[in-house]
């Protein structure tokens, strides 16, 4: 934020799901500087538990947003009254000329649960992520690949001389097909990582333990298939 202000740059923050950590008194200090953004984008359909899709953008100077997207076409002419009157026209604020009533489900969610309850839910997700990170750190077969700031834990199975990227990719598929958990993958430091992003209000530390137990079981099964036995001839499974 300070660099952007010094050099006259537009400071945009892609808040995705993380911006909603502002709803938590405990987590808010981690988002210092967010209030200095010229624009902020985030999704209600992630941590706010709103059905997909529901994105939001906040712009400090709304006139600049309209200047970027407004179109002065003949069939979009304004009038002083009637249906073509009144401002803003929402088509002046983005590329869509037509759009659904996405704001309704956001309004209903906020009205039903309130920001305090959503903030506690965000904290609960982060607590589950910290529990998962502790479990990963305690397992000799697992390796955490990045610090845990909020709700994302990146880790992998590490063992033997196996192609670890391929092994971890297959293990994620095993988890998906088991129905136990649905982590994704990403790359961290050139290594394929299992990425657990906890945003569901129903996820508990017990759920993360079930995922790790299943993961270790799948890993044992796969590694048993490639371990040489005493009766294997030299070179087999290598």
UniProtKB/TrEMBL annotation:
Its cofactor is pyridoxal 5'-phosphate. This is Cytochrome D ubiquinol oxidase subunit I. InterPro entries: Aromatic_deC, PyrdxlP-dep_de-COase, PyrdxlP-dep_Trfase, PyrdxlP-dep_Trfase_major, PyrdxlP-dep_Trfase_small. Keywords: Decarboxylase, Lyase, Pyridoxal phosphate. It comes from the Bacteria. The modification N6-(pyridoxal phosphate)lysine is found at residue 46. The keyword Lyase applies. GO terms for biological process: amino acid metabolic process; carboxylic acid metabolic process. GO terms for molecular function: carboxy-lyase activity; pyridoxal phosphate binding. PANTHER family: GROUP II PYRIDOXAL-5-PHOSPHATE DECARBOXYLASE, MIP05841P. It comes from Nguyenibacter vanlangensis.
